[in-house]
Amino acid sequence: MAMAALFLAGGISLSADQKPADRPAAIDTYVEAQMKRFHIPGLALAIVRNGEFLFAKGYGIANLEHQVPVKIETVFQSGSTGKQYTSMAVLILAEEGKINLEDSIRTVFPDAPDSWQPITIRHLLTHTSGLGDYTPAFDLRKDLKEEELRRLIYGTPLGFKPGERFRYSNLGFALLGTMISRVSGKFYGDFLRERIFKPLDMTTARIISERDIVPNRAAGYLWRGTEWKNQDWVSPTFNRTADGSLYLTLADVAKWDAALSTEKLVRKASLDQAFTSGKLNDGKDTDYGFGWAIAKANGRRLIEHGGAWQGFMAMISRYVDDGFTVILFANVQGAPVEQMAHAVAGIWEPTLAEPESKPIKK
Questions:
Q1: Phi, psi of 337 (to 5 degrees)
Q2: 71 contacts 58 by C-beta, under 8 angstroms
Q3: Which end of the chain is more exposed for a tag (fewer CB within 10 A), N or C?
Q4: Mean pLDDT, the chain, as a whole number?
Q5: What are phi and psi of 177, to 5 degrees?
């Protein structure tokens, strides 16, 4: 497979029998085996610390029709990893006093159903609003105005009382995007560009556009048993929603990851909210913050999120206590990016390796 690579020694602690020079080859062997097993045309992988690549590599093919290899600069779709940026935009507006996370969503949208009065902005951020995913009422091939999309969301029945349960909700984040537009007076993608991407020098990060010329853009694929097919087409409306419709590169996400350890965008108190598990009405943790899953890896903090959209898969896994992050993009639906990111982290830092399952003796 065609590949481009960059490796810099990172100073991460090693087990007694592992040498730094062994890790890139071990990662290559693992990644290439998984790509073959799961029919992944192309993949981009990085391990970063403080915005710097410790390891970064492109594997396989970004575009099968033109046989373009994946490079470190290849542009992939974010899938739901884009929810982090939406959450950050909401926190920026909150710090500016333009919204309050405890306000009802009807404070921003008075035309929302009366039954939505108990839904707060915090509920939307933490997937506890009662909203769920897109239903058959949403024709993903139909172009809609923002107001039309919002009214379709209004017509979606709530699955439970706000705060009663956790249910992952793309609709909730799509609604947050329209809220950002209304409060800021700018399309939410423009707000991200001006308030997040430009300040962090994320030069290739942007909203998806099939019409624009995007250098180094990968194509997304579906594996159909014996062959790859192109991704399913959706209208521009559903490639501009705030539930995860971004173009990103490894370098973009490395800069984003570094900024999350600073106060470049918002104060530490706001960031802490994003990285803290939400709570249900009964006090139980949701293990989800604002656009981030809150987990543990062998007892150490792991803050991460995956994404899937239009033949692309994405993963960012921040091993906070260990001081590094794994970023992974793949261009086929169903690629096991979470499993792969965790395995790569275990190769890089052996104390994070998950124990192998062994057959039960009878």
A1: -65, -35
A2: yes
A3: C
A4: 93
A5: -60, -40
Nearest one of 200, 195, 302, 209 to 251, comparing CA atoms: 200
CA-to-CA distance for 153 and 132, rounded, in angstroms?
10
> What are the structure tokens assigned to 332, written together?
């086929």
* pLDDT on residue 83: 98
Taking the alpha carbons at both ends of the chain, their separation in whole angstroms is 42
- Mean pLDDT to the nearest integer, 321-343: 98
Q: CA 247, CA 258: separation in Å to the nearest integer?
A: 18
Instruction: Kindly tell me the sign of the dihedral angle through the C-alpha atoms of 256, 218, 242, 157.
Output: negative
Whether 216 shows a pLDDT value over 60: the answer reads: yes
Q: Please state, in angstroms and rounded to a whole number, the distance separating the CA atoms of residues 338 and 335.
A: 9
167 in helix, strand or coil? Answer: coil
Predicted local distance difference test score (pLDDT) of residue 73: 98
| DSSP letters for 175-187 | HHHHHHHHHHSS-
Nearest Cα neighbor of 291 from 90, 95, 156 is: 90
DSSP code of residue 198: T
209-237 burial, b at 16+ Cβ within 10 Å, e below that, comes to eeeeeeebbbbbbbbeeeebeebeebeeb
The token pair at 214 is 């995007």
- Residue 197 DSSP one-character state: I
C-alpha to C-alpha distance for 3 and 5, rounded to whole angstroms: 7
Instruction: Let me know: does 288 contact 274? Beta carbons within 8 Å.
Output: no
Predicted local confidence at residue 18, as pLDDT: 59
Gap between the Cα atoms of 37 and 40, Å rounded: 8
Residue 60 has what DSSP assignment? E
Over the stretch 254-267, which tens digit does the pLDDT of each residue have? 999 999 999 999 99
